[in-house]
Amino acid sequence: MFDRLTDRLDQAFKTLKGEGRISEINVAETMKEIRRALLDADVSYKIAKEFTDTVREKALGQNVIKSVSPGQLLTKIMHEELTHLMGGSFSDINIAANPSIILIAGLQGSGKTTFSGKLANMLKEKGNKVLLVAGDVYRPAAIEQLKVLGGQIGVEVYTEDGSKNPVQIAENAVKKAKSEGYKIVIVDTAGRLAVDEAMMNEIANVSQAVKPHETLFVVDAMTGQDAVNTAKAFNDRLNFDGVVLTKLDGDARGGAALTISYTVGKPVKYMSTGEKMQALDVFHPDRMAHRILGMGDVVSLVERAQMQIDEEEAQRLSKKISKNQFDFDDFLSQISQIKKMGNLKDLMGMIPGMGKMLKDVDISDDAFKHVEAIIQSMTPKERGNPDLINGSRRKRLADGSGTSIQQVNQLLKQFNDMKGMMKKMNAMGAGGKMPKMPMRR
Question: Is 114 in contact with 149 (CB distance < 8 Å)?
C-alpha cells in the first residue's frame, strides 16, 4: 500500500543528500516534496501542512553533527513525526474481563466478518476459549461466511435461526459464554452501504445491551479519506475504542492508515492483509513508520514467525540439521509454515531494503505451488533420501507434478545447495570457528 509514498519520500530526501548542513532553503524544498507526497497519498491538505510545518521547525532547530548527514537527521525526525501521526504507541485490546465482549462495527464490505474470524483465530492461538456471534441478521451470506470461518479455525459460532433481533442474539450469546466458560465473545454486527440513523441506533442498542469491554471499528483502507470521515461519524455516536484497517495489501494510497488515528483520536489496533486467517497484525505506529520510510520491519516479521513455528517442531528440525538429515519432508513442512505467515511479498517487504527491490516484482502466493507438486510426487523413500532420484525418476516426477525436468533439476540443486549451507553453519557452530575457505591460486 505504501510503495508509492515510500518512493516519493525517498526522492524528497535526495534533495538533502550531499548537503553539508541543513538550511532554510534546502529544507523548504524537501518539505515541499514531502507535502506533495502526502497529498498524493490522499492525506488531507490541512494535516499534510501541519505535518511538514512541524518537521521543518524541528529540522531547522537541530545542529547536524559530523557523523550524521542532513538526510539521516531528517529521516529520524520524519520517523518520529510519522509515529506520532499514526497514534504514537501500540494500544492493546481489553480482554481482562471474563468473559470479555468485543463488538465489531463498520460499513458493509469493510471486511468485518473476515476480521472477526482472524481476531478469533489470533486470540484462540493465545490459549483463549472464543465464541463468535453472528449478529448480522440482514445478510444471510454473512452468517454462512462466519460459520465457514469458524469451522476453519475451530471456533464455535453462535447463531439463532429465524431471529431478526440482533440485541437478543448478542444477549443470549453472552449468557451462553458465561455458562459454558468462554473467555472471549466476538460479536459481528450488520453494516450498511453508508452511515444512516437505523444502523447507528441498532449498533448503539446492541452495545447498550451487552456492554462490550472493547468496541472496534473496521474500515476499508482502500477507501482513503472516506474511511476517515466514516470513522469520525461512527465515533461521534458510538465512541469506539479502536480502529481496524483492512485490505492494507491493496493498491490504495495509504492516507487513511496515516491519518485516521490523528483525526478520530482513537488508536489503530489491528491491520489486516489478505484472506488468510493468519494475515492479521497488531498495529505498531513506530514499526509502520519504519516500513513507510523503507526501513523494513524485522520485529513484526520475527513475531509472525514465532506465532506460526511450533517449538517442538523447531527443536526436532534443529536436531536433524545438526546430523545433516534434513530431507524433503522437512522442506515441505517449512514451506507450509512460511505460507501460514501471510502474503509473501508483504513478508519480503519487512526485510530492510527488500521493499524497494521488489516494488515492481509480482510475487504470487502460488510461488511454492510447483515445488510442492514436485515433492508430493516423490515416494517416501525419495523424500527421505533425495540421492535416489536418478534420471528416470526425475522424468517421472516432472510428469507427475505437471512440471519440466529442468524445474525438477533446479529444485534438487537448490535443495542440495541449502543442505550444504546448513552443514557449513553447523560445522561453524560446533567448532566455534569459521569453516576454512579454499585459497585462490
Answer: yes
Residue 156, pLDDT score: 96
What is the rounded distance in angstroms from the CA atom of residue 317 to the CA atom of residue 187?
Answer: 40
Q: Under a CB-based contact definition with an 8 Å cutoff, are residues 284 and 258 in contact?
A: no
Looking at the chain, which residues constitute the CATH 3.40.50.300 domain(s)? 100-295
SS3 content of the chain, % helix, strand, coil (to 5): 55, 10, 35
| C-alpha distances in Å from residue 78, one per residue of 59, 84, 100, 286, 289 | 9, 10, 38, 11, 8
- H/E element, 414: helix 405-431
Cα–Cα nearest to 267, from 226, 235, 290, 224: 235
pLDDT at position 118, please?
Answer: 94
pLDDT at residue 297 in the model? 53
Tell me how far CA of residue 61 lies from CA of 79, 85, 158, in angstroms: 17, 20, 58
Separation CA 395–CA 389 (nearest Å): 10
Cα angle for residues 344, 347, 350 (degrees, 5° grid): 150
- Return averaged pLDDT per consecutive 10 residues of the chain, 441 residues in all: 70 63 75 86 87 86 57 81 88 90 90 93 93 89 92 94 89 95 94 76 90 92 79 85 83 71 90 82 86 64 62 72 81 76 63 53 68 92 90 93 92 84 65 42 37
Which ranges in the chain are annotated with CATH 1.10.260.30? 304-431
Instruction: Indicate the CATH number for domain 100-295.
Output: 3.40.50.300
Going by C-beta distance under 8 Å and a sequence separation of 6 or more, which residues neighbour residue 383? Answer: 327, 328, 329, 332, 375
pTM given for the model: 0.68
304-431 has which fold?
434 Repressor (Amino-terminal Domain) (1.10.260)
pLDDT, residue 296, reads 56
**CA geometry: angle at 232 spanning 276 and 3, to 5°?**
45
Which residue in 129, 7, 14, 6 sits closest to 69, CA to CA? 14
Evaluate whether 222 touches 247 at the Cβ level (below 8 Å): yes
* Residue showing cell 477507501: 223
The length of the chain, given as a count of residues? 441
**Can you tell me whether residue 236 is helix, strand or coil?**
helix
CA atoms of 205 and 184, how far apart (whole Å): 20
Cell of 424: 557449513
CATH 3.30.70.600 fits 3-85, yes or no: no
